[in-house]
Write a structure and sequence with these properties.
This protein is α+β, with helices and mostly antiparallel strands and about 140 residues long. It has one domain (about 30-135). The chain is about 15% helix and about 20% strand. It has a five-stranded mixed beta sheet with strand order 1-5-4-3-2. The protein starts with about 30 loop residues before the first strand and ends in a 10-residue tail after the last strand. Keywords: Plasmid.
């Protein structure tokens, strides 16, 4: 039976071996995305499957990557994200606010997903944008013509 000849090395390091990357310091908020309240049905809005079939999912993923990698100030000024602060009135909206979500949440949209009309609607709470509806025809907070 052999015994260990040497003790274990000390776990303390005298020098840092991990390369340090500069961490971006900013006061801007970064958005995360959640599908917790997503309405995955084909009605006024569309399902994930509908967007998969018509080829819109790659455009959505690209937009979500951009949205989450940049601060809210940049994505708002770039016209990618608009925060309306409340659920739109029926005069400019074909969607109904889900019972489990307040009309007083910070409702908004991620826009220009593979074109001008297509967008996703949801609400911003803290730093999380909860996607609620896929809107291929711009029926959430319609533009007045």
């Amino acid at each position: 039976m052999s015994k260990r000849g040497r003790g274990l090395r000390s776990s303390s390091r005298k020098e840092e071996t991990k390369s340090s990357k500069s961490i971006m310091k900013t006061t801007d908020r970064f958005i995360s995305v959640s599908f917790r309240y997503f309405h995955n049905v084909d009605d006024i809005g569309q399902s994930i499957d509908s967007w998969r079939v018509d080829g819109s999912l790659p455009d959505l993923i690209e937009k979500l990557v951009y949205l989450t990698a940049n601060g809210i100030t940049k994505v708002s000024s770039d016209g990618i994200f608009t925060n309306y602060t409340r659920f739109p009135d029926s005069a400019v909206n074909d969607f109904k606010c889900p019972d489990e979500i307040s009309v007083d949440e910070n409702w908004g949209v991620i826009k220009n997903i593979g074109g001008q009309k297509r967008r996703v609607a949801g609400f911003l709470k803290d730093n999380v944008f909860y996607i609620v509806f896929f809107d291929k025809d711009h029926r959430f907070w319609k533009s007045r013509k």
